[in-house]
Each structure stands twice: as C-alpha cells, then as structure tokens.
DNA sequence: ATCGCACCTGGAGCGCACTCCAGGTCAACG
DNA sequence: CGTTGACCTGGAGTGCGCTCCAGGTGCGAT
C-alpha cells in the first residue's frame, strides 16, 4: 500500500480533510498528487510528513514557522543545517514549556491540598460518616 | 503595602492593563475597588487571585472554565468540593499535556539526530577540520 | 493656567488556525 | 438512468483571547 484517499488520510493523521486542503493551500504540503478525477492521492511520504507536522503543531509551533521548515525541507540537502537549528530552537521551547507546566502544576497541587484540608476540617459535626470510607 | 495601581498590577502579574480590564468585564475579577477618581485599586488579594488565574491560563484552561471557577470561588465554602473537582480534572489534563509533549519531543530528538548524522556524513572531503573539534 | 500622564469607557478590530458553505464533478450502484 | 457519496473549488465565517482606539477625566508638576 502507498496511496490514500483524503478520507483515509484524515483518519490516519488526525487532521480534518478541510485542514489537509488548507495545509496544501498555504504550502505546508507541496502539491499533493491527483488522480484522473482531480482528487487528492496521498502517499506514504505525505503521511510521514503530516505526522511530523502534527508533532510540531501539537508542541506549539506556529504555522508560519512550520511553513519556513517546509520550505527548507523542499530546498534539498543544503538546508539541513538550518533545519537542524530550527528544530533545536523549537526543542528548547518545548523543554521550557514542560518546565513551566511542571512549575504551575505545583501551584495547582498546592491549591488542591488546601481544598482537601478545608474539606476534612468540615466533616467533624455534619455528616455521620456517609460516603467515602476506605481508600 | 496592599494596594496597587493598574500599571503596577500589570507589571506584577504579567497581564496587560487591557487584559485586566477585560477580565474584570467578563467576571473573572469581580468588581475591583476604585478610588475617588474612579480608577482601579488592586488589593493583595486581587494579586493573589490574578496569580492563580495566570497559572490556570498558562496551563491551558479555557476562559470559560476559569469563569466557572471564579463563580465557585465567589460562592463561599459550599463550593469547595466542586472547585476541588475542577482543579483535579484540570490537573489531569496538565499531566496528559506533559506526557504528550514528552512523546513528541522524542520524535523531534530523533529528527534532530537524523540531521546531525546527515551533516557529519557530509564533512569528509569539504572542510579540513574547521569548527567543532572536541566534546 | 496648562501640560502631560495615567487612567477611564464602550465598542471595534485583530491574528490565528481552522471550519463551513454553496455549487459542482465524477464513479459506482441498483 | 437516477441517486448517492466522496470529493472538488473559492471564499466567507467562526471562536478565542485579547488588543486597540477615540474621546474624555482628574491630578501633580511647571
């Protein structure tokens, strides 16, 4: 197997058909092949590329930068250094993102702790041990 | 000290003055105090609340849900359970977010590795050992 | 007195990343 | 031969979260 209808591609990549068309239109996807009827035919390479796009997208890379990356990727071997630099910069942002999430998660955990405490202080007189018994 | 001008507040919280006004308008900030001239005067409590909002926002909680949380917070002690549940649910999403980022980061690292390899294969004839020597 | 400045208001505008729509084509199925 | 369904196009619309703007006010410094 090596070619996929738009529907299959949407299903496999998690992008909607509309998004696939949109990505092609703005140049993230460089001229997808067509069959006799003018319908898109995605290749295995397209799927691989889409999976890379998905990864970049979900880690928060803006479309403009993915576009830059796509252009480089089309540019052949001379652009490898620049692509490397771009990915490394992005990787650092992802790292930073994770660090921040963890820091903020601590704040959330602390708040959750406060709420837990305030709930356990509230029980003494009110409920005669209704719900929540053992762990 | 215990009261802050809009400008100070913006500086300390990282929200723009416009955003502070917007948050008050939509109800994330419940009637900020005013001085004689009608200008906002933020309290220490406001700053604490804003820091919580910032934390939720940056971990990806949509405004609609922060709104729900704000309403609960205004609702007094009876809403503690619900606030707890809300934060716990959010915490799980944050956890999931971190997991996904890490997974995707692996894909990025792998790609970076490919680029590194393809660069080191390119050197043999060209450069006579210019940059990058040890380590 | 008047200037500059930080702030006020209501409402319009923006950037991003899609998402939806109307109207049309083609292939296959009954 | 008619209908269905997946797909096509260009372009308009959407949702989110701000951000900007015009026009105005009050206060301290010159």
Automatic annotation (TrEMBL), chains A, B:
Residues 3-72 form the HTH merR-type domain. Keywords: DNA-binding. Gene3D superfamilies: 1.10.1660.10. SUPFAM superfamilies: Putative DNA-binding domain (SSF46955). It comes from the Bacteria. This is MerR family transcriptional regulator. It comes from Actinomadura yumaensis.
